[in-house]
Design brief:
single chain; about 575 residues; alpha+beta; five-stranded antiparallel β-sheet
């Protein structure tokens, strides 16, 4: 084998060759090192990109963040609530809420310092802890106005974002608080109509129309507040109902609250308590409406039947006198108009416990009422209906019902004997349910005349309204403290209807522990406080509800029970 010789150009010495060879080796090494550096940078770059994708998309966005944002974007706007005339009572406004991806925030302390400058109401320590939490999603502030949003955007803080949100707004503040209820920060209903119809309000954009009338609600609250202040009372409540349909036109419980600011209130706040539907009370002489109606309807006697009321009733070791003693026998009509406890008790004893108990059950006094809110109180009554219970229940003691139950039953008494279920939703007249007959139409007519006489000539005179035929019955009950009644501490009420020829509306006014003032001559009974407040309410709402005044203010009934002739039979005496 011949050996190959390397060609060397002429004049190229061995030293030059070695130098060239060394240069090539150096270039190869440099090339290798550069390749290693480039590969290293590429790997680092890929790691950084992967980490960013993991933090911003996979973990925060794909998990907590995107799921949360999706839940906000996919839900419906909460529907409006309006009154019977279409006036807005509750609506939702678009807002922006501030949140952070704590994994992306570079300097939590600096971010917290900047945010506090724009939102001083936030807690610096709490915000800092959230930004340091390392979580992919943390709320920082909810429902920010556009101005605050713009200021925060200008701060340019990495990892801080905005989410479209909505806030429930109640344009009339406290006015409808106990009926409408309120929502939490996530717009979920927590009370009243908002809670009962939560799913419906979220599922449809159609406004929910209530039976309430904005104007009547204003009047009722205005007069109740004035009455509470005048009589130095601790609270009050009121209700206006259409007796023919069961629609609630107005409902007020005082003290009340602002549903726009409910987050600042304690869950135990007394203002959250709805006296009309949730509270149960011994209603006093208002129960004589039912006792008298049952007596007449049962055939146990008539309006001329007389009772000896000269001596107090004896119930166990107690003696029950009349507030205004009469020293002569009273007819059934007089027992009612003079509000005689003795006469009412004797009427109930004559009818018997079974009849009374069956009637109270029929008109709903033994069951929780039905209404389109969940804040409903169950009545309180003895398990064993003894003779003493029969006597005390005849004049409103020993059994506690809610004001809603009282008005619903009383509305049935004056509505030709037909009781309708109460409702907070506007009713289609063509779909009105038949209702429940609780007394005859003849008994209802007699009761309307008796209730009119109480206001026209009796102890309810302060409820009179010029030009209108108003009827009603007052009730005064001592309040319980512990296991005994406190003398002079009363829950007073007046339940009245108008116009009495053909009753359309019923009004209840309750005043919690009113005080005797100079104008009441030392008295704090219902006729001196609840009755005049009810009269003022009726005088203002009657024109608004299109009830025309009556030219002749006196009801001229057909010859009958109330037109008692001089030779009228006096009936038997009990």
């Amino acid at each position: 084998m011949s050996q190959r010789k390397l060609y060397v150009p002429q004049g190229f010495s061995g030293a030059h060759w070695q130098e060239t060879k060394s240069l090539r080796r150096t270039l190869d090494v440099a090339r290798s090192r550069l390749l290693v550096v480039c590969c290293t940078f590429l790997v680092v770059f890929l790691i950084i990109v992967g980490r960013l994708i993991d933090v911003s998309l996979l973990r925060s966005g794909g998990g907590e963040n995107l799921a949360h944002r999706g839940s906000l974007h996919n839900r419906c706007f909460r529907a409006d609530i309006v009154d019977r005339n279409g006036e807005l009572l509750a609506t939702s406004l678009k807002t922006s809420s501030l949140y952070a991806n704590a994994r992306v925030v570079l300097d939590p302390k600096e971010a917290a310092d900047k945010l506090i400058q724009v939102l001083p109401e936030l807690n610096h320590k709490e915000i800092l802890n959230r930004l340091k939490s390392g979580k992919g999603f943390v709320w920082l502030a909810r429902h920010l106005p556009p101005q605050k949003q713009a200021e925060i955007i200008c701060l340019g803080i990495p990892g801080i974002y905005f989410q479209q949100d909505e806030r429930r707004v109640y344009p009339h503040g406290e006015l409808f608080s106990h009926v409408l209820g309120y929502t939490n920060i996530d717009n979920q209903g927590l009370g009243g109509i908002e809670r009962k119809f939560n799913a419906q309000l979220l599922a449809t954009g159609e406004p929910l129309r209530l039976s309430l009338d904005l104007r009547a609600q204003h009047v009722l609250r205005d007069e109740l507040l004035a009455g509470i202040e005048k009589f130095k009372a601790q609270g009050g409540a009121g209700l206006i109902m259409d007796v023919q349909t069961g629609e609630i036109i107005a409902m007020i419980s005082l003290p009340d609250f602002d549903p726009n600011q409910v987050g600042k209130m304690s869950p135990q706040a007394i203002a959250l308590f709805n006296k009309i539907t949730l509270g149960t009370y011994e209603m006093g002489s208002s129960f004589k409406i039912f006792n008298t109606a049952l007596y007449l309807d049962s055939g146990a006697g008539n309006l001329f039947t007389q009772f000896d009321v000269s001596t107090p009733l004896r119930i166990g070791r107690f003696r029950v006198p009349d507030f205004h003693p009469a020293h002569h026998p009273l007819t059934v009509a007089e027992v009612f108009t003079e509000s005689s406890n003795i006469g009412s008790g004797k009427m109930a004893i004559q009818m018997g416990s079974e009849l009374q108990r069956a009637f109270f059950k029929k008109i709903g006094f033994f069951s929780t009422p039905s209404l389109e809110i969940l804040e409903l109180g169950a009545p309180l009554y003895p398990e064993k209906w003894r003779p003493d219970t029969t006597t005390t229940a005849s004049y409103g003691y020993g059994i506690s019902v809610s004001p809603l139950q009282l008005v619903t039953a009383a509305a049935g008494i004056v509505n030709k004997g037909i009781m309708q279920k109460p409702t907070l939703l506007k009713t289609d007249p063509s779909k009105l349910p038949p209702g429940l007959r609780i007394i005859s139409e003849e008994t209802s007519e007699a009761m309307c005349k008796l209730m009119y006489l109480i206001v026209a000539q009796g102890r309810g005179k302060k409820a009179q309204v010029k030009g209108y035929e108003v009827g009603g019955k007052s009730g005064t009950a001592n309040t319980l403290e512990g296991r005994s009644y406190k003398k002079g501490s009363n829950m007073t009420s007046f339940v009245g209807a108008f116009p009495m020829r053909n009753p359309k509306y019923m009004v209840l006014v309750m005043i919690d522990r009113p005080q005797a003032i100079k104008g009441t001559y030392g008295f704090n009974a219902a006729g001196w406080n609840a009755a005049p407040v009810a009269g003022k309410v009726i005088g203002r709402i009657a024109p608004l509800l299109h009830v025309a005044p009556t030219i002749n203010q006196n009801i001229q009934p057909e010859p009958g029970p109330l037109m008692i002739p001089a030779s009228a039979p006096q009936g038997r005496e009990h």
